Q: What sequence folds into this?
């Protein structure tokens, strides 16, 4: 009985090990870890030229596909729910959602879809894509960095990226005057994907 | 003029409450309407909302006191010349105004305190948040505040037009009573005496 069990277990184990070895490859499609909240879309804008105001979007999702052989064929898409803007101040958030800024009832989502990925270093790349915000679509280039990847402790496989870019608000039709120091906003996207 | 209301006339306290609240409500509406479109560098960009919140909280306290006073010292009976439909519509308008004022004030407070922060009343005191941080509460409360305040102004206009109608066309004492003036004595009665009946 014991030997019989051993006989069937060993090939099963071998199969499992080989599939784990296969999963060790970074190539594949990754879903943002929205559920575990290992993802952040943060923005940073100057207040009067005197300090930085940080805010974030709490609700967004996306995927990226990694071509391990040919990284430039990788892709990333993301959709942000604009109403989830959060700058830790209810009155300001309400104002940001109004038609002075994001106009979330008219434009409930902002989207990014990559069109070109250019490797610039061992772990860095320029990700160019179409970014739609406030109903305006414009090409935007993100400076991206691969933070790390590999098995997680719970049987999955993860990869984390961080990317940033600076947008001029008026390019996207957001023209409310916040002063000369506050015409641009820096966006920092930090995400962890779980391989599907 | 007596402080308390009696069965015929409003007392000084009810008259004062009425006009104080009227002034505050119209002022708050005008200020609210004006302040939401101010530019970021406008000196009133911060002063306007600070004043709006402070007066709003004080109005809430005044309205509680006013309602309390209404129970202690009930308003006079409607004038005998008022028609039944006038009495019913006037009462409905009064109570709708009370209700909408509270909806407007509470919703306004909920916008400002939806992130758990307190509402400052000048530099005198601050009202803590009761909701704590509630995601999206500022938007729901904002929508309610917008429509409730417009409804208050709409009903208050109706209420004012009715008072003017009573004063100019019916030539009764409806408006004089709430101004704390003595009833008119002359024209009506002297005209009546010339009636052949």
A:
């Amino acid at each position: 009985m014991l030997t019989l069990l051993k006989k069937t277990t060993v090939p099963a184990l071998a199969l499992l090990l080989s599939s784990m070895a296969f999963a060790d490859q970074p190539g594949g499609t990754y879903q943002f870890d929205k559920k575990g909240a290992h993802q952040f879309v943060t923005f940073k804008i100057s207040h009067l030229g005197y300090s930085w105001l940080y805010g974030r979007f709490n609700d967004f999702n996306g995927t990226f596909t990694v071509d391990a052989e040919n990284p430039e064929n990788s892709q990333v898409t993301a959709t942000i729910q604009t109403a989830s803007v959060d700058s830790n101040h209810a009155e300001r958030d309400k104002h940001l959602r109004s038609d002075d800024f994001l106009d979330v009832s008219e434009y409930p989502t902002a989207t990014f879809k990559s069109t070109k990925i250019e490797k610039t270093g061992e772990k860095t790349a320029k990700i160019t894509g179409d970014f739609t915000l406030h109903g305006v679509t414009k090409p935007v280039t993100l400076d991206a960095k691969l933070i790390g990847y590999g098995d997680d402790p719970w049987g999955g496989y993860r990869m984390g990226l961080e990317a940033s870019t600076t947008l001029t608000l008026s390019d996207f039709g957001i023209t409310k005057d916040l002063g000369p120091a506050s015409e641009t906003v820096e966006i920092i996207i930090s995400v962890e994907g779980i391989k599907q | 003029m007596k402080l308390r209301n009696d069965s015929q006339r409003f007392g000084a306290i009810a008259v004062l409450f009425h006009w104080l609240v009227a002034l505050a409500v119209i002022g708050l509406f005008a200020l609210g309407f004006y302040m939401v479109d101010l530019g970021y560098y406008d000196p009133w960009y911060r002063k306007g909302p600070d004043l709006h919140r402070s007066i709003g909280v004080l109005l809430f306290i005044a309205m509680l006191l006013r309602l309390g006073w209404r129970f202690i010292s009930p308003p006079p009976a409607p004038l005998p010349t008022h028609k039944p439909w006038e009495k019913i519509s006037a009462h409905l308008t009064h109570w709708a105004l009370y209700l909408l004022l509270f909806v407007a004030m509470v919703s306004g407070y909920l916008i400002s305190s939806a992130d758990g922060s307190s509402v400052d009343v000048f530099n005198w005191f601050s009202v803590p948040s009761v909701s704590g941080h509630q995601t999206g509460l500022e938007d729901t409360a904002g929508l309610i505040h917008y429509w409730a305040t417009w409804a208050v102004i709409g009903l208050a206009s109706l209420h004012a037009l009715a008072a003017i109608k009573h004063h100019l066309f019916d030539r009764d004492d409806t408006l004089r009573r709430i101004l704390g003036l003595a009833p008119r004595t002359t024209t009506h009665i002297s005209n009546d005496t010339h009636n052949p009946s």
